Amino acid sequence: MSAATVQTTHDEAHGHEVPYATQIRSNRLGLWLFLFSELFLFGALFTSRFVLWGNTRPDLSQEVGLLATGVLLLSSYFMYRSETGAAYGDQKRFLRSALIAALMGLLFFIMVVVMEWNVFGLSGSLFGIELFGHLKPSDGVYGGVFYAMTGMHALHVLSGIVLILIIWWNGRRGVFTPERHWGVEATAIYWHYVDVVWIFFYPALYLMGQPA
Amino acid sequence: MNENKAAAYRLGYITLAILAVLTIIEFFAAIYLGSLVFLFIIAIIKAAVIIQNFMHISRLWREENH
What is the predicted ipTM? Predict the structure, then answer.
């Protein structure tokens, strides 16, 4: 008798094996609790914006902010399509949508880091729209709060992209089935959460208050 | 099964459309109204739509059948 058989017999005899449905419910609750704990981090950053900036805001490119928001919302939509595809055994749509979601997430990341942070010190405009930001982390409370908020969010975007690429890779290998695809569901929930955070950060950074 | 699948994809399109409309309203409301409260309300509605339709928060209370 192999070790695996002995273990299975032991689990069956003592009822150690958790039913899949119970396991999923626990996983789901655990993930939501984790996201709730993240709320304190983002909530603190969000509050600091109002305490330190008051009814003012830095002069940021409205068009870039709107475009970045649109890209992230579209990415969230493709992640939803991907999860729905996995849930209904639509493998092609699941994989294709996951890849599009990751690419759009990457585009959002590039828009924040390359255009808004302007890490390469570029300058230029298109149709009269200034493409590259000029705010520096050392620019007092404006720079400090802006970089803390967008930086922490960008870090979550980056980790979300990695998670999407992992489920895409595993999906190609046929790991997920319509009955068992918790990895896809968890990644989708995390990705949408990152989107929800931006839904509050976008108006707080770009729209609320008078330009300083 | 096919009806459920079509409904699920349809929910995605509808949610995206709602989010797009609210984002555009938010953008122009900031320019022409400049009301913090209004912008907050739009952000809360957008977040609620995503949490309900994309994140499926109701699954937390639902019994799994697989």
Answer: 0.93
